[in-house]
What does this fold into?
Amino acid sequence: MATITEPVLRPVPQVTAHEVIAPRSSKQWVDWVTTTDHKKIGIMYLVLTFVFFCLGGVEALMMRLQLPNNTLINSDHYNQLMTMHGTTMIFLFVVPVMAGFGNYFLPLMIGARDMAFPRLNALSFWLLLLGGVVFYITLFFHPPNAGWWSYPPLSESLYSPSGGQDAWIFLIHITGISSIVGAINFYATIVNMRAPGMTWGRLPLFVWSLLTYAILLIIALPVIAAAVTMLLTDRHFGTHFFDPTAHGSPVLWQHLFWFFGHPEVYIMILPGFGIISEVIPVFSRKPIFGYKAIAASTAVIAFLATLVWAHFFMLSSFLIGVPTGVKIFNWIATLWRGSIVTTTSLYFACGFIAIFVIGGITGIFLAVFPVDWQLNDTYFVVAHFHYVLMGGSVFTVFCGVYYWFPKMTGRMLNESAGKKSFWLMFIGFNMTFFVQHALGLSGMPRRIYTYQPGLGWSTYNLISTIGSFILATGILVTIGNVAWSLKRGRIAGPDPWKGNTLEWFTSSPPPVNNFDVIPRVRSVEPMRDIRRQIERETGATQRTGGSEQFARV
It folds into this structure.
């Protein structure tokens, strides 16, 4: 008879800690400086670009203070302020602030855990910071004064011998590398890292806009890089690309610069269009009207943007208004008969539509050659430019801030203060720039720091200056709102707006890995699908109507 040997029971090994040493915690600033987390990089982008936005705004206010009385600053300082303001707003704010939103939200919206190349992502930010520092160091020496466009021969060494112009050239190179590295990263992430089920026909419209933004940057930036390299060699190495006395041509600079510059206008605007396309359906409680038409119009705008660099070609300037009009009509159709939730973000979205329509109409005027012949280089162009870029970019940026702040921080912004900020900005903006159309029609040239009395321009300039300070007050209200809400704002929760896209699936703020589980995407509105599934399984109502009040703090 076989015997059964009982197993020997051994005691479970025990580890006794006689002394517990706490894990070494690194300093918080070191974590931020060395991070490759797309969310931290996105926040650093947004903070840095808003610092530059404030600097550019102060420069603009100083110019506005000069124009009603003509006695505050001299001509050289005015030219320096104009150069610093334009360069800052375009190269250090509008383009990179959109990259900030893209860095933070692109992986979240497509269900990825990070960008395709995290270290390149960090490099892109630090190059932007380096470019801004190189540019603003010139304040301690001699800032550039040839304008943000730097037309030769004014930007040649004969007329701009200081190092400030060289710093401007280095800024374009450094921030250009930053942007093209970021654009390649965006493209690779969108093409390769989408969640299961997220086909091209289910891509969020903000992601579509980032894709075209990236493609336009990859096309346009090498051209401006070549142009500023030619200018640098003209200044220091004896070449004559733009010197007409040595068979060069200043017109060559204009063609190269505006082949970059006009696509750059749409580079600045298209991500803003994407933000509006995300915000309006959420607060209308309706699917976006004509998703495919909006996505297709984004691609058409990108194509036509490369053809309009001289206004330049009248027919192409008319044509680009068609896909833009498609977007505007689709946004209005989405709002029509929707269950409207009147949040600050929606205020900025609707304000953007009103302002951008005015800018688009004046752009059609300027595309007509006989009209452009009369109005070119007048304040009419200044007004048009700011209605397109301030309305098309800055208002959409503030729309995005109020929409996504709860996701980034876990707290709500104060809605009452936000609406006060909107009305101050909207009234101040129109007061500043609408009268400039009249200044242009009455013949006031742009880029001048003084003018003779009795021309009828002083009153318009005074109105414009008062409006600029109202606009600045509205911006300061939002900055104060952000500072207050970071510590005292109402807790947001993961999905305070009942949004449509995947960033609202995760916690607020999101964890390092973004998602514990990446959901399968079944439509353009994956979060709406998820809420319906929860309703079916639990019976708890997830959808909201237009009567809901958000964060009345």
Remarks:
- The first helix runs from residue 28 to 33.
- The chain has three domains: 36-294, 342-492, 494-513+526-541.
- The chain is about 65% helix and 0% strand.
